[in-house]
From TrEMBL:
Organism, scientific name: Runella slithyformis (strain ATCC 29530 / DSM 19594 / LMG 11500 / NCIMB 11436 / LSU 4)
Record PROSITE patterns: PROKAR_LIPOPROTEIN
Name used for this protein in its record: Uncharacterized protein
Length: 123
């Protein structure tokens, strides 16, 4: 289990390393098009890039999010958005509340159709 956590942490760090701001005008057309298609209601978008990816930090419906795109072809990789308890089903809410106080709730959608709800709770 600890190996999996370490691997995930290392992957997350590699996405964060050496990022620099980039303006909308500097983005490849495919990145612009795919971002608009995936997140049409995004506001306050700020772009960053590293050697491999473009990152869009945005707000959608009052919630903060981040989207990740491949640099070479502009294909969407994943989007992470903050969630509220109101975004969950009654059964999901009940299950989470039993586990403790919810500190952070996020939804991670990936291009392989994987949807994950990430939850941080404190007891």
């Amino acid at each position: 289990m600890k190996k999996h956590i370490l691997i995930v942490a290392l992957i997350a760090l590699s996405f964060q390393s050496c990022k620099s701001e980039v303006s909308y005008d500097q983005l490849p057309q495919n990145v612009k098009k795919n971002f608009t298609a995936n997140i049409p209601d995004a506001k306050d978008v700020k772009w960053e890039e590293n050697a491999d990816y473009y990152f869009a930090h945005f707000t959608e419906n009052g919630e903060k999010g981040i989207a990740l795109f491949y640099k070479a072809d502009g294909n969407w990789v994943e989007t992470e958005k903050a969630l509220s308890l109101n975004d969950l089903t009654p059964l999901q809410k009940e299950s989470l509340i039993k586990r403790g106080q919810i500190r952070q709730l996020k939804e991670l959608k990936k291009n392989d159709s994987t949807d994950v709800i990430k939850v941080e709770v404190s007891k």
